[in-house]
Specification:
2 copies of one chain form a homodimer.
Chain A lengths: L2 H16 L3 H9 L3 H9 L3 H7 L5 H10 L2 H8 L4 H10 L2 H10 L2 H10 L3 H4 L10 H4 L5 E3 L5 H11 L8 E5 L5 E6 H6 L6 H4 L7 E2 L4 H10 L4 E5 L5 E6 H19 L13 H27 L2 H6 L2 H29 L9 H30 L2 H31 L8 H23 L1 H4 L1
Parallel strand pairs in A: 1-2, 4-5
Antiparallel strand pairs in A: 2-3, 5-6
Chain lengths: 450, 450
């Protein structure tokens, strides 16, 4: 993508808008590739966006809304008149139109639906939650009957034109609407003209139920290398298809969710473009949650308060023990969370990764313990100080490996997101545990430290 | 995917292997969907894998190697005789065969290439680094000339059979091999039989250079919703195409890389299945790097060592200040790294996210500072202690927002991976800075604390 071209276009649009020349601004926008227009459009103020959109051709406006992020699309869609909004929604892919309708106030959505010509394509999509197969699917696909022959199927394709989102597969449905097979265009073209569709269709269809979670859908599509996934109901009736661009979006959204949750940002809809108010409202509760675990760790330390009056050095090194435990735990946590997300850990095989992570923890604990303990001894000249740092580090890094592995596995076993809350729980253990071990050891060795 | 079916099959294979019945074991494996066979096969010992593979039909073995992770495929491939390996490689998709050849010892690869029939399809792919467009592309695609008509193009398709990885697009190349257009099968079918390919081909081709980084390729394919991306050289000559399954793999690999790097696991090839030795070798250096920053923070504390003899309470609360700074920094860091990965921050617009994150930091800093400071005051009954905790927390959380935002942006500006080293650098600042601010404030207020 040519960032410079986009940046220049944004400048051009800004200048045109300052002199009130909307037409020139729209022309500049339209010269970009459709996929790039959204980036330039997003960069404008809401006021300018609302001023430009009604001046665009309907197909251009529809393309633009499809490319924008869902919340941005909804924000600008509600500025349109109901009539214009209905026309634009008619022109959009049904799944994208349904997303907009789901994100604007219900009253506006109802008005727009009443005005739409193709409302019946969109209405079935509105009933599924966003993060399910039904929420991802589109109704823009081609069905044929199994009793057609190849030549009739090709004639049918010629009739219905090119305006379909999934043009390379034909879905074969029987009279009841049951999905019975799939035909790729490649096979249709090389089939004998008089061969029946049912004789060369692929009957080994991988389909998903409309209420399946989007993460599982993405896993299936990626596992079986599918560009399109048909969606059926409990009776096997074809309801829609999920296209590969949705697969990519889901994979990216799920990765964002994991990265965010490991970093105590609980809401994956949050982005650097979210308002300060929204960001604080979502992020602050998790900082408060972390405060509680931090204060609990402080309470652990306070039980050893009189130690510091005798050996102030302990205050210098206690955080090394907890910090290194946290780092080691984060390593295990990230690897387990990622393995769970990619489906690399199956139900029966949770013991093996645990044993491996503990073995890694033992080796890393001993290595870090010896090196850092020796460093502390050389620095402060107190062998017993070095010894308790070594022991505490080794113990805490082993604990870190255990909890960093067990917590996400346990959350998954409880049907919770393994990434959510993992780092809070793990930090609580490595912090409080680390302080208790280090200061407890110091109490035992106190006569040698003073 | 039916995990239970896979688990049952693994059991069946194990039992068959115990009684030395290789044929039964292979039959059980082959009853699974090709995409599921790899999971069952991976679960076997290397010895059993090596025993089973030569007994499989060549196409089954080829499918299996395609589905295995690259390193696993290479490990089992080298157990084959050179002749059998060459046959299997001939049957594989050229890009997957090239991956195997790149991962086995060069001498074995040269022997296998010499025996292969289709070596000329694979050899051009061997010269590109794994993580470039050239490293991802396959040579299995269909080219046609612009001067053919639609009917001739369809006849040509009938001739060449179905064994092509990218069957839904035809690449139009001129006599020099330049990519001049693309024709989707949908448009070919509905074109008039005598219409020339050049009259209905899509000339607005988005292609990528063979040396382009895979992350950028994935961004382009995802931005323009491409299922296939042609790869050209500097002169515009078509070299290969990248298919959507590679896009999915790259997106997942890049997300893994970011999650790992934020967690101080520098090597995204590492997985929970990696050996303990490899895991420790890759992870331990980053723990040692973290040790250095932890010891630096300890040195900062050691400058205030005599404080603790007078006010032991400081040792109780100092980690709260640094811990909360670390948590706040991690939130900003994750959001900026993710925004950079998804291309949401363009070159010119780095000031806006910085200002936003700082604003969020100020609000969160004040909120956490007031609440936790008040809590400490109520707990320990010392108002000045509460005050310095409040001030230090607020200051450290603001610093956290600034460095959590600036460090990844700066790394990107220096053409470094924004995720790598970010958390080490950021932790170093929030730890050392947090201790210095808290203990510095305590020094100032010392008379009020004792």
């Amino acid at each position: 993508m040519d960032e410079k071209l986009i940046d220049r276009t944004i400048e051009e649009i800004r200048i045109a808008l300052e002199s009130g020349n909307f037409e020139q601004a729209i022309n500049a926008l339209v010269r970009l590739h459709p996929a790039d227009r959204a980036q330039a459009f997003s960069d404008l103020d809401n006021k300018d966006q609302a001023a430009l959109l009604p001046g665009m051709d309907i197909p251009v406006a529809a393309d633009l809304l499809e490319e924008l992020e869902d919340d941005e699309a909804a924000d600008v869609a509600i500025t349109l008149s109901t009539e214009l909004l209905a026309d634009v929604l008619d022109e959009m892919e049904p799944d994208e139109a349904a997303d907009v309708l789901g994100d604007i106030p219900p009253a506006r959505a109802a008005e727009a639906l009443a005005e739409m010509e193709d409302a019946e394509e969109v209405i079935p999509l509105l009933s599924y939650p966003d993060e399910t197969a039904g929420g991802l699917m589109t109704t823009s696909y081609i069905t044929i009957q199994p009793s057609l022959n190849a030549s009739e199927a090709i004639d049918y394709l010629r009739q219905i034109g090119t305006d379909v989102e999934t043009p390379y597969y034909l879905y074969v449905v029987d009279d009841e609407g049951d999905l019975v097979g799939i035909v790729g265009l490649r096979n249709l073209i090389i089939a004998q003209p008089e061969a029946l569709v049912q004789s060369f269709m692929d009957r080994d269809v991988i389909a998903t139920n409309a209420i399946e979670d989007q993460e599982e859908v993405a896993r299936l599509m990626s596992r079986y290398d599918l560009t399109v996934m048909p969606v059926i109901d409990d009776r096997g009736i074809l309801l829609g298809v999920i296209t590969h661009d949705d697969l990519v979006d889901v994979i990216e959204a799920e990765a964002t969710e994991d990265i965010y949750r490991l970093a105590n940002v609980p809401d994956s809809d949050l982005s650097i473009n979210s308002s300060v108010r929204t960001s604080v409202r979502r992020r602050l509760p998790w900082l408060f949650l972390n405060s509680i675990t931090a204060l609990f760790a402080a309470w652990v330390i306070s039980n050893y308060e009189n130690l510091f009056q005798q050996v102030a050095l302990l205050a210098v090194f206690q955080s090394v023990v907890t910090g290194m435990g946290g780092n080691a735990a984060t390593q295990s946590l990230a690897m387990i969370v990622r393995a769970l997300a990619l489906g690399e850990i199956s139900g029966r095989a949770t013991l093996r990764p645990l044993i491996k992570q503990v073995a890694i923890g033992i080796i890393q604990g001993i290595a870090v313990g010896v090196v850092v303990g020796l460093g502390a001894y050389l620095w402060k000249g107190n062998a017993y100080l070095g010894l308790i740092i070594s022991l505490a580090l080794a113990a805490n890094i082993v604990i870190a490996a255990v909890v960093g592995t067990l917590v996400p596995l346990a959350l998954r076993a409880l049907n919770q997101d393994p990434a959510l809350a993992s780092s809070v729980l793990v930090t609580a253990v490595t912090d409080s545990g680390g302080f208790a071990i280090f200061l407890g050891l110091a109490t035992i060795f106190l006569p040698r430290l003073t």
